[in-house]
Amino acid sequence: MGTDIISFSRVFKRFAGGYQALKDISFTVEAGEMVFITGHSGAGKSTLASLLPRFFDVESGRVLVDGTDVRDVRLSELRSAIGIVPQEPMLFAGSIRDNLTYGNGEATLAEVEELAAAAHADGFIRDLPDRYEQMVGERGVTLSAGQRQRIAIARVMLARPRILILDEASSSLDAESERLVQDALGRLMKDRTTLVIAHRLSTVIRADRIVVLDAGRIVDTGGHAELLQRNQVYQRLYQRQFEDALATTEISRERPLTPP
Hints:
Elements: E1 6-14, E2 20-29, E3 34-38, H1 45-51, E4 60-65, E5 68-69, H2 75-80, E6 82-85, E7 94-95, H3 96-100, H4 109-118, H5 122-126, E8 135-136, H6 145-159, E9 163-167, H7 175-189, E10 193-198, E11 209-214, E12 217-222, H8 224-230, H9 232-254
Parallel strand pairs: 3-10, 3-11, 6-9, 9-10
Antiparallel strand pairs: 1-2, 1-4, 4-5, 7-8, 11-12
Helix pairs in contact: 4-6, 6-7, 8-9
């Protein structure tokens, strides 16, 4: 694997019980390109992304990196080339430094601090009593969602993968945490081939290309403006999020500033 071109070729995926999650999926992500995979819940977005690191294997068809079927690559080599930032990052009970260096045990403290700063994590870490040696509970329960996500991003930065998968990586954050996480993700994605899984459309305008899934099939690909004009699935996604954002704004306006 060298240039990091990702191709899905006539991919089908069926789960136990006969559920057909993906149907005849074909598209290519060029080296260094950022492609958003979007669609309503249950459209097959996360299943599609899970085929690349082989959390699942295809029923038929092929997933290729630089022309090589991922099933023909040693699993450890394949997964070391792929960095994943999920919606709910997995932290383990241990120090923040241990969590950051999980994918790169040889990283120096200077490297850890540098990339933690790039991920907007260094500031809150230095406010903790033991800084980088601060112990966190299982799943990082002593940290906020935004802090856990920034540690997860810094951890991927330290692992230096060539390919990224971002799976709803900022969908559960407040506005300020999302701003910091989105900036950190922008630095992480630079010059990397990236698949972004999203039904929130707040960041898709930055994508090189958008792939729209519906009921396990690709129904359209293109840019934000053109899809908004011609594709009904994308139009409905956009309209629903516009209405949700408007409702959230109205609720926040009506909420009293102090408890009654």
